[in-house]
Amino acid sequence: MGKWNWYGVKIIKQLILQGEPHKDLVDRYYEASAKRQHFEESIILVRAQSFDHAYKIAESKTAKDNEVYTNRYGQQTTWKLVDAVDCFLIYDDPTTGAEIYSCFHNAPKETTPDEFLDGLLGSVEHTPLWPAMYMEFSPGRHLWEALHGKQD
User: Fold this and answer.
1) pLDDT tens-digit series, residues 84-140
2) Could you tell me which of 52, 71, 47, 61 has the C-alpha nearest to residue 11?
3) Which residues of 92-101 are buried (b: 16+ CB within 10 A; e: fewer)?
4) DSSP string across 59-114
5) Which end of the chain has fewer CB within 10 Å, C or N?
6) By residue range, what is the domain housing residue 54?
7) Overall domain count for the chain
């Protein structure tokens, strides 16, 4: 093994839902998202001795972090590691503004930025899973009220 360095490892996770939603909790956001697969792309900061070592650490950490929780619709929810897809050696100290990931892409000379993004992202829609996630609410209280009625 070599010297310890910082790496940014890009991982892909898939949202796994189990069970049916509680009928009183289903809203327009659930209806829209229920027809889609949900994936998350993230970059994890890892201290390792090589690229292979960084991949192993990131995969192990991500697999361990797959806690099961109940979503706002009453379903059991977890994130499953799909793959660690890229790794970047960080040359700067990991402080504010440090580059922790970079990937170069080549495209035909006549490619516009919009065409490049369409090719890079494909037809995948990059929107929040549920815009309601960003609204202020207590999922536990929301679930309690749906199951037991609103308490004053």
Assistant:
1) 999 999 987 788 887 777 777 777 888 888 888 777 766 555 444 444 443 433 444
2) 61
3) eeeeeeeeee
4) HHHHHHT---EE-TTS-EEEEEEEEEEEEEEE-S-SSTT-----------TT--HH
5) C
6) 5-148
7) 1
